[in-house]
Amino acid sequence: MSTTALSLPRRFASLVKLEHTVFALPFAYVGAFLAADGFPGVGPTVWLTLAMVGARTLAMGLNRLIDAELDARNPRTATREIPSGALSLAQVWALCAAALALYLVAAFQLDPVVRWLWPIPVAMFVIYPYLKRVTWLCHLWLGACTGLAPLGAWLAVTGEAPWEAWALFAAQGLWVAGFDLFYSLFDLAHDLNEGIRSWATRFGERGVFVGARLFHVSAVALLAAAGVGLGSDIFYWLGVLAVAGLLLYEHSLVRPGHLERLDAAFFTVNGLIAVVFFVFVALDTLIP
Predict the structure, then answer these.
(1) Is 11 domain-assigned?
(2) Structural domain of residue 48, as residue ranges?
(3) Confidence tier at 270 by pLDDT (50, 70, 90)
(4) For the residues 85-91, what does the mean pLDDT come to?
(5) Cβ 112 vs Cβ 175: under 8 Å
(6) Is 92 part of a structural domain of the chain?
(7) pLDDT tens by residue, 118-150
(8) Counting Cβ atoms within 10 Å, is residue 37 exposed (0-12), middle (13-18) or buried (19+)?
(9) Is 1 inside a domain boundary?
(10) How many other CB atoms are found less than 10 A from the CB of residue 2?
(11) Measured at the alpha carbon of residue 233, what is the angle toward residues 228 and 237, in degrees to the nearest 5?
């Protein structure tokens, strides 16, 4: 086997930012555990995990394909796998096809309603990369894409989507949209030159902070609303407090004109938020 073939898994993992799975997968488990009011079972958990892996890989692969030319013109992203030549377009298309197949196989093992709804996430994944060329509301669309994790998991386990599931959808969506506003600051100068539409290019650096604060306060309020509706116990509320505390810490790391710790705010803290909240939800649903 050639060295290139051996390196493909590593390159694919880098392409789809495998480490960013912590932003969505724990929230899928949150939806599943709350829907089942406990462990949803080995089978549903495995198939849900595989569906999430397939869907997220497809979303990232499509994003990289559609944005390949933009990435090549941006010094920060020019070293990504497609513009740098580490992966060919054909290889990434093949990855997307495999991811779609995995997503479909897994989705069809879950509640029958998922068999009718599976095209919705795919359509949203395709639309997202084009939105930054059209509207600064693209961050909210990205949030909606990731918010499908708890909502879809709830549907996958029970076939139903009560308002609490929609509250989780909106909470995760606003959380992701809020930290994506911060992320847009990495490319503010480049996006202004390219005519890319983002919250940062529309409202400036200070507008990003206002928007992120508004989104994150709303996300915590929605998590609390879901907890009230579900009649959750102490561990759930400790989870909500932990999310609120971590978001406060995230916002303390950066402020207008001082973005030195933006990487820590974006990657480290947000990864902790999803994992910590899931742990508290699991404890809440598993402990009598």
Answers:
(1) no
(2) 19-286
(3) confident
(4) 93
(5) no
(6) yes
(7) 999 999 999 999 998 899 999 999 999 999 999
(8) exposed
(9) no
(10) 7
(11) 70
CA angle (221 as vertex; 252, 171 as ends), nearest 5: 85
- Alpha helices (H) along the chain: 3-15, 25-36, 42-66, 68-73, 81-84, 89-107, 112-117, 119-131, 138-158, 163-184, 188-194, 199-230, 234-253, 262-263, 270-286
Distance of alpha carbon 95 from alpha carbon 103, whole angstroms:
12
Of 197, 170, 191, the closest CA to residue 71 belongs to: 191
- Number of domains observed in the structure of the chain: 1
| Amino acid identity, position 55 | A
Q: Does any domain span residue 2?
A: no
User: Cα separation of 239 and 245, whole Å?
Assistant: 10
- Residue range 27-60, pLDDT digits in tens: 999 999 999 999 999 999 999 999 999 999 999 9
Residue whose pair of structure tokens reads 């404890």 in the numeric block: 283
Q: How large is the angle between the packed helices 138-158 and 119-131, nearest 10 degrees?
A: 170
User: Using CA atoms, how far apart are residues 219 and 177, in angstroms rounded to an integer?
Assistant: 10
CB atoms under 10 Å from CB of 177, counted, come to 26
Query: What is the domain-level CATH number for residue 156?
Result: 1.10.357.140
Rounded CA-CA distance 163/160 in Å is: 10
